[in-house]
Automatic annotation (TrEMBL):
Entry keywords, A to Z: Aminotransferase, Cytoplasm, Glutamine amidotransferase, Repeat, Transferase
GO molecular function: glutamine-fructose-6-phosphate transaminase (isomerizing) activity
EC number(s) reported in the record: 2.6.1.16
InterPro entries reported for this sequence: GATase_2_dom, GFAT, GFAT_N, GlmS/AgaS_SIS, GlmS/FrlB_SIS, Ntn_hydrolases_N, SIS_dom, SIS_dom_sf
Coiled-coil region(s): none
UniProt name for this protein: Glutamine--fructose-6-phosphate aminotransferase [isomerizing]
Amino acid sequence: MCGIVGIVGKREVAPLLVDALKRLEYRGYDSAGVATIHNGKLERRRAEGKLINLDTRLGEHPLAGHIGIGHTRWATHGAPTEANAHPHFSQGVAVVHNGIIENFTPLRAELIANGAVFHSQTDTEVVAQLLTAYRSQGLSPREAMQKTLGRLEGAYALAILFEDQPDMIMGARSGPPLAIGHGDGEMFLGSDAIALAPFTDEITYLDDGDWAVITRDSAEIYDHDGALVERSSQISQGGVYVVDKGNHRHFMEKEIYEQPEVVSHTLSHYIDFAEGRVKLDSSQIDFANLDRLAMSACGTAYYAGLIGKYWFERFARLPVEIDVASEFRYREIPLSGKMAALFISQSGETADTLASLRYCRDNGLTIGAVVNVRESTIARESNAVFPTLAGPEIGVASTKAFTCQLSVLAALAMIAGRARGTLSSEDEAAMVQALVELPRLSNEVFHAVQPQIEMLSRELSRFKDVLYLGRGTSFPLALEGALKLKEISYIHAEGYAAGELKHGPIALIDENMPVIVIAPHDRHFEKTVSNMQEVAARGGQIILITDEKGAAATTLETMATIVLPVVDEIVAPILYALPVQLIAYHTAVFMGTDVDQPRNLAKSVTVE
Ligand code: F6R
């Protein structure tokens, strides 16, 4: 999603703005722009496509000034052209925006009727035009800002420059996050702490409905009603992480290979390995007295939640109600006092997940959140935060956040099982023992399967469609595998519960449809083998991901059999995620796609 940055400082800001935008690239974007005020005049440079294009433009036509705003745009209203790129100008006002102004059509019509001339197809331009309209009625920038915000419906993070105020940037937040960075004689605005990390680690997050006026040495924050409010600053973790690719070709590759380390880090946060038990404080969610758990998330985080459902139901006998957040929020699910809700999000900012959280909170449920960004809105609005310690995930396709989410959900399911008396301490100790082995086994898997998967991916890159099958927790992993492949290689892929095959998708099977079967030798294995027989009988090409026992137990001819170590069922989805991610990654590399920023996708989805 769009990224925002603003600097009011004591040095040339254009290169700093571009540098900050580079740190926001991971969010996904299709055009970019910056504006500064220099000698009392607003000027901007914008470019379609990647930041390199903006950099080139700035090289040809430099932009001077010690105050400025910048933006990476992920198109919602209007094509990703230069004319639609931000900042948008309207007579001495410049605006950058993340979100969607839902009532932009009537606002635009009203402004046009009053003589405004629009230069883009964006919803954002109405904000600039409204500010201009109010300023031309004689209102001060603060008054115009408050009036304008009162007219906007929808979601926004905004940064605004006024040509006649060369020492001041205004920001506003309703939905998508916006942070103020405190420097020494310089102040900053940014979509997140990572963008501001090279400048400062002292960050104040605006609350929903807040707007702010920042100058070189001050930040005033007003709430929705225009009352001056105090919001405390905090020292952010954003700067401690090195956001570079190291020796890897892509962030995604780096993040895949980081998993043994970050999963181990995450598990150590929740598990006392010496004692053989989960050390989480069970009082945060009263699992013992729940009769249902509601869960919701989007995309990959949702698939992590689906796997979590299997664990909560099996190990804690706790029924789980789970849905993608874009449905959950509107489903009007009846909620009772004996329920709690758990939301899963890497960014902690996903609009649909946040709306689902608020629905549950408004219905009086205790809210738990599994999040990777601890300062995020979802974390701040939850009663209990269960962090994933994955570090910043830059590749748009989620990898290490997924396995860290699974690690946290495994620990939560175990604590719930203990609290509800359904998991014996012996079983808990056995599961902990299995999890201890996970980082080492993950490294072994990388070494063992990497060359084979590279070769296989070259083959796969020739196909147009791929089917993924699995049973039990391997079913959500099949869905995740299909999502990963389609989002970065653009090959059409579907995930199915293996048992569903004969209810429809079997019609697709022929020699042009490789079928990736995820099947550890668990209690579902024999049934999955029967489904593989059905595929083989119809000329389908099978890629089997199994363990040593599974490989020994089947004589079926496969296009490839990827063999992993035999592991406990709580560990299997985490370990099996690795070859699934590598298949998508290498296939995309062979296809030559933009692996880290696949087309049309955004990292932090702050609009519906
Ligand atoms: C897929 C992917 C997305 C996200 C989804 C939720 O690889 O990354 O499907 O999982 O947009 O995002 P978060 O976890 O930030 O709420």
